[in-house]
Amino acid sequence: MAKQYADVIIDISHDKVDRPFQYRIPPELAGEVYPGVRVHVPFGKGNLDKAGYVVDISGHTDYPEEKIKSITAVDGKGITAQGSQIQVAYWLKRQYGSTMIAALKTVLPVKQKLKQLEHRKVTRCMEGEALLEVFRQCEKKRQTAKARVLQALMTDEVLPYELIRQKLNVAPATLAALEKQGCLKIEAEAYYRNPVKCAPGEEKRVIPSRMQQEIIENVIGDYKAGKPGTYLVHGVTGSGKTEVYLGIIEQMIRMEKQAIMLIPEIALTYQTLLRFYRRFGDRVSVINSSLSQGEKYDQIRRAKAGELDVIIGPRSALFTPFPDLGVIIVDEEHESSYKSESMPKYHARETAVQIASMHRASVVLGSATPSTEAYYRAKKGEYKLFEMTGRHGVSRLPKVYTIDLREELKQGNRSVFSRKLRELISGRLQAGEQSMLFLNRRGYAGFISCRACGHVMKCPHCDVSLSEHRGNMLLCHYCGHEEQRAARCPVCGSKYLLGFKAGTEQIEEALYKEFPGVRVLRMDADTTKSKESYEKILSAFADKRADILVGTQMIVKGHDFPDVTLVGVLAADLSLNQNDYRAGERTFQLLTQAAGRAGRGDKPGEVVIQTYQPEHYSIVHAAMQDYQGFYEEEITYRELMQYPPAAHMLAVLITSRQQEQGDALSREMTAVIDARMHADGEFAGEDKAGPKAETEKTWQRLQVIGPAEASISKINDQYRHVFYIKHPDYQALVRIKDILEHFCKEKELKNQTVQYDFDPMNTY
User: Packing angle between helix 172-180 and helix 144-155, nearest 10 degrees?
Assistant: First the structure.
């Protein structure tokens, strides 16, 4: 038998070992080792037992035979990566910068096999006199346990195994003995853990509008013609985008294809799942971080086996291993949660397009407020654009009031509620209608500071202020540090330590004080920690067990409550004042999405936006529900400043234990770029023999910003430095990333890490 060799990626997240290592496949494992399987190998000088993934198999080696070690075992508990998942992992590594093992772990929704759950049952095998005779013999011999089992089986032919064990107090050995006698048989039936807890119900079918039908026919027509593409559905809130998704998926299922439905928040799962479940039944499932490992494992098994048609979930659901993927739908594609915060820092939108191209599948992006990146590409013809400008059915866009809080203060109103909002809330309570109040904060207070000396209570491990929570506790929202609020200032000893109260808890308390007897639900990061908290809060509000829902961003995304006729945005400026080039876009999106929650039924809706900057273009256009107007102003600004999508940006973040080390490394790395810029013009795959003017022009278009301390210079005792690189060509930045990675490998960094973030969603 010819010798075979396997290329193995070792499960060590370190740049020094970020390459395949070749191992011999021993004859006894020849049939068990293949690309994607998890194996154990001897590694390093000490031949330490390490796990890894096989990424390729060949019949030859480039190394001396005597130096090749053998695979020791196949990991029977490890999840096998499919060939397509390995391809995606290689793409993630190349495109976003990470180790291969980190990329592989990203594309594997679960890492370990888990025990298959079984329903066991006991079935009677004897009838009549024969069974009765055995029963009498057991009683005669005082085999009371056997007698209890036989007596129960005289009444019921089939009984659950656990019922007999627990209720009749019978040992497994007793049942085994009766089985051997031929009195009964024990059978096991495997079943899946099912996280879907939707009550059955009839779907209220709606007749698609002409525009909805046109989009469905375009997407499906292109797919049938063998020309699947990427489509952007820009539809105002309430225009019926979900019905478009349902129609496309329904057609895909008829062609025996599967669908992935991405949603930005776990909080959206309940309502989305309900609609999909009622349309497609139990061949719909979910996968998200709130599921147990067993539930996740079983959904992946069901997907692989072709027992699911649709999987719904946030970013990670993208890697569901469907055998016949037909479409990936990215709802609310503008959401920043689609960008991974850990390495590799991939974006679900771009990754969805890549995965779809490998499967010859379609991608549908949908939003009432598309990201500037998606809309920019649609305008350039890279995506096919569909515009849905009106709400579906009888509902109409709400009336919006913009309240200048500066004027409220002049009039002596120091409440968190403007006079207009207070009036409208009171009216809704009298009419028995519901309201939603949105605040982009959590906790009870913004921060605690001393009014005497100005000292701000900060986390000892991070360069951020502590937030006050109930019970006089101060909490760091970055590392989780907690401490009791001090009675006096630790710097000057003053007793005037006060918080700037602008949290969801404070809003809730203000409502109880302002409107006695009001029923309030609060939905934020603090009230949604348990597994089913999202569903409980949302279903309670949907059942009208509360008058007002107070919450953070999670309440303004995609929820559909027909009795909500008032939405109040309490602090529109909070997102506007961020030190980030996307601040205007985020503010517009949040305000537009929030406004879209009002008047989605047959009752008209109203929206109150409270702001200190009513003249800002993002607030003006949000109040008018004018995406086109906002986009034109925003893209002009992006093009002027060469920010994405007009150009591309690479953020390089250095973390270190010592501030001086991080500062030195960041300067060395920018010096490497500078040296390459002034060397011979080699860059991003350009031909050295090409015109000198062209290469010089390319380098002139490169911009390096920094290095500098990050805006939050320390998190969890790690110092942070950052610099940014801008260039019109994405692949040029990939090339620079490769140069910097090579430099860091040669330096053999200790106590320092470098992360690469392409087109970052947040500045550092």
Answer: 70
Q: Do residues 268 and 317 lie in contact, with contact meaning Cβ atoms separated by under 8 Å?
A: no
Parallel/antiparallel/unpaired status of strands 284-286 and 310-313: parallel
DSSP code, position 182: T
Question: Distance between CA atoms of 604 and 608, rounded to whole angstroms?
Answer: 14
Residues 6+ apart with CB under 8 A from 289: 266, 314, 316
Whether 693 has a pLDDT exceeding 50, the answer reads no
Three-class SS state of 627? helix
218 pLDDT higher than 50: yes
Within 13 Å, how many C-alpha atoms sit on residue 1's CB side? Answer: 10
Phi-psi region of 702 (alpha: psi -120 to 50; beta: other; left: phi over 0): beta
Pairing mode, strands 230-235 and 362-367:
parallel
Read off the pLDDT of residues 578-606 as tens digits, 9 standing for 90 and up: 667 888 898 899 888 888 777 666 788 89
Mean pLDDT of 392-402: 73
Q: What percent of the chain has pLDDT over 90?
A: 41
Q: Please state, in angstroms and rounded to a whole number, the distance separating the CA atoms of residues 19 and 491.
A: 52
The more confident residue out of 578 and 52 is 52
Q: Of all helices (H) and strands (E), which one includes residue 118?
A: strand 117-124
Q: Which three-class secondary structure state does DSSP give residue 429?
A: helix
Read off the pLDDT of each residue in 407-421 and give the average, rounded to a whole number. Answer: 88
User: How far is the first Cα of the chain from the last one, in angstroms, to the nearest whole number?
Assistant: 56
Pair type for strands 117-124 and 258-262: unpaired
CA distance 138 to 709: 82
For 380, other C-beta atoms within 10 Å of its C-beta total 9
CA distance 150 to 131: 8
Residues 617 and 584: their CA atoms lie apart, in Å, by: 8
Element (DSSP H or E) covering residue 248: helix 241-254
pLDDT in tens, 520-566: 999 887 787 776 787 788 889 989 999 999 988 777 765 678 888 99
Q: How far apart are CA 104 and CA 141, in angstroms?
A: 62
Closest by Cα among 504, 591, 532, 583 to 556: 591
- Is residue 502 pLDDT above 70, yes or no? no
Q: Find the angle CA(351)-CA(389)-CA(220) to the nearest 5 degrees.
A: 50
The rounded distance, in Å, linking the Cα atoms of 160 and 225 is 52
User: In a 3-state reduction of DSSP, which class is residue 164?
Assistant: helix
Average pLDDT of the segment spanning 150-165: 88
Q: How many residues in total does the chain contain?
A: 764
Distance of CA 445 to the CA centre of its chain: 27
Residue bearing the bigger pLDDT, 481 or 248: 248
* CA gap 109, 299 in Å, rounded: 10
At 678, the pLDDT band (50, 70, 90 cuts) reads low
Q: Angle at the Cα of 436 (from 432 to 438), degrees rounded to 5?
A: 160
3-state secondary structure of 757: strand
The Cα–Cα gap between 274 and 252 comes to: 19
Whether residue 344 has a cis bond before it, omega within 30° of 0: yes
Could you tell me the two tokens for 193?
């853990």
The beta-strand segments (E) located in 236-350 are 258-262, 284-286, 310-313, 325-331
Closest to 744 in 3D by CA, of 679, 669, 674: 669
Please tell me the predicted confidence (pLDDT) of residue 300: 86
Mean pLDDT score, 619-632 = 93
Residue whose token pair is 């895909």: 252
